[in-house]
Amino acid sequence: MTDAPLLQVVELEKRFPLPKSVSEYFGRKSGRSIHAVDGVSFEIRAGETVGLIGESGSGKTTLGWVLARLHEPSGGTIRFAGADVTNLSGDELRAWRRNVQVVFQDPVGSLDPRLRVWQIVSEPLRAQDQMERVRFRRERKRVREENRRREAANRRAARGTPPGPQLPLLDPPRRSPRLTRKALRERVRTTLPNVGLPPDCLNQYPHEFSGGGRQRLSLARALSVQPRLIILDEPTSALDVAVQAQILNRLVELQRQRRIAFLLITHNVAAVRYVADRVAVMYLGRLVEVGDVRTVLERPIHPYTKALLAAVPEPDPARRHTRYRIGGDIPTLIDPPPGCRFAPRCPFVIDRCRAEYPPLREIPGTAGRLVSCHRAEEVADIPPSALLSTEGGAAAAAVSSPTGY
Amino acid sequence: MGRSLVDLLIFVGKRLLQLVPVLIGIIVLAFVFTHISVVNPCAIWYPHAKQTILNQCYATFRQPIYVQFFQYFQGLLTGNWGQSQQGVLVYPQIAMALPATVELVLASLFLMIFIGIPLGVIAAQSSGRWPDHLVRIFYLSGWATPTYLGAVIVAIFIAPYLGLPSGGDYSGPPPFREWTHMSVVDALIAGNLPWTVDALQHLILPAAVLAFINMGIATRMTRSSMLEVMPLDYVKSARMKGLSEFVVMYKHALRNSLITTTTVLGVTAGGLLAGTVVVEEVFTWPGIGLFAYDAITAPNFDGAIAVVAVFAVGVVLANLIADILYGLLDPRVDWR
Description:
The complex is a heterodimer.
Chain A: E1 5-17, E2 33-45, E3 49-53, H1 60-67, E4 75-80, E5 83-84, H2 90-96, E6 100-103, H3 117-159, H4 181-191, H5 211-223, E7 229-233, H6 241-258, E8 261-266, H7 269-275, E9 278-283, E10 286-292, H8 293-298, H9 303-310, E11 323-324, H10 351-355, E12 361-362, E13 370-371, H11 376-379, E14 388-389, H12 393-396
Parallel strand pairs in A: 3-8, 3-9, 6-7, 7-8
Antiparallel strand pairs in A: 1-2, 1-4, 4-5, 9-10, 10-13, 11-14, 12-13
Helix pairs in contact in A: 3-4, 3-5
Chain B: H1 5-37, H2 41-45, H3 51-62, H4 65-77, H5 90-125, H6 130-144, H7 147-162, H8 183-189, H9 193-229, H10 233-240, H11 245-275, H12 277-282, H13 288-297, H14 301-329
């Protein structure tokens, strides 16, 4: 665990400005926005899987998209392998994209219905090949100009008395062979078995596949450029349980072979428990708890993590009538108030929570666990099940399930 | 999956067979309407003729209408499309006029596709901002322009300003044989470049007027279906592949939103075939619109019926082509 972080995010923000209301055109204060991601800092090391969990609307997907540079960040920095990629644009951004790929949630919407399998999987390769040629031309131009300059300098030096030293000429760059259609198809044919698809489906269309097949296809597309980080945006939530397990197994296997880092965005706690090394819990645009997956899920410290875990249904008849007790209103993401985001719903809330935002801090004696709670030490030992009540009926009115199930 | 060539041929064959009852129905309707709408055609045809000639004329119309229809239909099946009262045969006239109209319609379709669709893309990309508003103003003003007004303004004011001819298809009788009666195509077949340029100069203004007036539908459909497609994940994933924004927009987003646009353009093209009357009249384009106008006002029954039938075939064929294109564009469509 001493590797330098592959991806490092510092104070990342994403705000979506709200459309102006009529009164704002007449001078009322304007510029209100939704703070979807609000000061998130964390890192992903090479080859590890980080699970990002949180309820619907907590900003998980937005965070993933900002990391993949599908949304422009409104603030903060993203560093990838040491380089700042927050403000990459144009060709540089396009070239950088080979490092990070995304697998989207919706297996139907994320594949172009008009392309065949081999086209879908090989298009990232073709795009990167094209970028390669752009780089080649730029490099060749640079070398030629430099050589011309050096030749001129050499001629001047040769004429001088006494003759000056001669500069060596640079080697012209070598052009990589253009990827032919045949080569691309061959590459795809050999890639498909890696994700568990038959190699002879090259000419099929996405609609001829089942949901699981399409998600495998998305995975094959993401893998084709051999990225170092894949952002999996709820990759299994549209699939049935058996297929989910197959896909997750495939992910674990691929990671072992290729040392790809995964960011697994999901609300499926079981999936995170199964594949992730570390887990980050997100609530209303902020991270509330980050740590090793076993310790976080077995001994959650932040009250929200406890609530989230308590709400996971368990097939235990003894718990049939227990109700999840966290009530209260979810604060709005439009210009949120200061203080802890979870304060309005937290059973352990004190006045300080409403006034002052608790920064993510390492809790002593927990091996690198980061928690954003003023009372972390006091509430650490309260088990999640303590947040459940067995009152039934009457309490049901106050129930609000936070996980979006 | 029924997507082989055989399936496509069966599909086209079925649709062509469906054309037969449609065509018979259209001819019956056109026959009935022409024959009941003019009270006394003989009086119009022979205003100052002697009673004997009038009596000959009345003799044909005194027969029961179904007998008259069967006589007409018999002629149609044996290749005799009838003639005008002055004895000019209908078929050769249509054979000369229809290609000219088809040429005009294709030229305006070309403009609608290569100007109207990119405008739709631009509008969708900048949805809600000023380029979007400009595009909307442009296509709405086209849509709101009455054909006669637009055509007249272009013919009278814009044509001299641009130094372009405002009538006819050539500047004079061309020195080559007109094989297809499409002015540009004929000049190209003859390999005569100056006359090709001349034909294009005559074609551009009427085609532009038609395109300007009908472009709105293509732009609007493209804009709205682009807006539908652009937030989809596969557009995002195309961007993630490292493709340029142009490729993302025109290859992934546009190709998927063209499906609706194609259908609408097919219907529009069929309608245009019959809708060029005013433009052809203003620009004296020797097309079927002009012929239809003359046939109806003469009145030339045989000519009017034939023109209506030809228009009907045009509409059905344009829809058929749109359906085929739809299937080619969308691999999920089954031919069966």
